[in-house]
Amino acid sequence: MRPGIFSFLNAVKPLYELVAFSSETKEFSDVILNEIEKNKKFFDFKLYKDHCTLYKNRFVKDITKLGRDIRKIIVVDDDENNFVLNKENGIKISPYYGDDEDNGRLSSNKRKDNALLELKKILIMIYKDNYDDIREALKDYDELIKMKVTME
Question: Other CB atoms closer than 10 Å to residue 2's CB: what's the count?
Answer without folding.
Answer: 18
